[in-house]
Amino acid sequence: MKFSKQITVLFILFTLLIANWAVAKGLVPYPAQVNNIMRYQRVAPNIATSGALDSSAIQELVKHGFRTVIDVRAEQKSTDSERLAIKKTDMEYFNIPVTREGIDESQLAAFKEVLAQATSPILLHCSTGNRAGAMWTVYRLSEGIPADRAFKEGRAAGMSEAMTKIIKEKWCQDRDDC
């Protein structure tokens, strides 16, 4: 009888462990769970943002099961080396070049297209988090999220005050809540 109860308890624990793993698959970890990634921020259950990635950051992404990296840096030599390093893993790499002039309609459309086809978990990043935070803010505004919440999320991801001003000028003209 005692052995039967132990088996039942072990079966329940095993089932909970498997269920927990299945639920966590596709989710990004919280910042306290991640090392070696500059300005890492969990902005949604399946999307995180960050600054620049080096080889240890890429390994950290692999360790946490990330499947897609969206780089919003302007194309340059470093984007090529990062793309090659990520292609050596099982992750997909996308580059949507964004400058310090902000996000335009075509860049937002490209971001939405990548999100629609991307496998989670997803990392959106740039050099410092500024453009990644701006892209996240514009995306959230386009999804009808209240402006104060969208801007708060973007600033938490690393968007600067200067970029906040640019985004407000470009994307808040037809909104009453900006």
UniProtKB/TrEMBL annotation:
InterPro entries for the chain: Prot-tyrosine_phosphatase-like (IPR029021), PTP-NADK (IPR055214)
Taxonomic superkingdom: Bacteria
A Pfam cross-reference name: PTP-NADK
Domain DSP-PTPase phosphatase fused to NAD+ Kinase: 17-159
Protein name (database record): DSP-PTPase phosphatase fused to NAD+ Kinase domain-containing protein
Annotated source species: Nitrosomonas mobilis
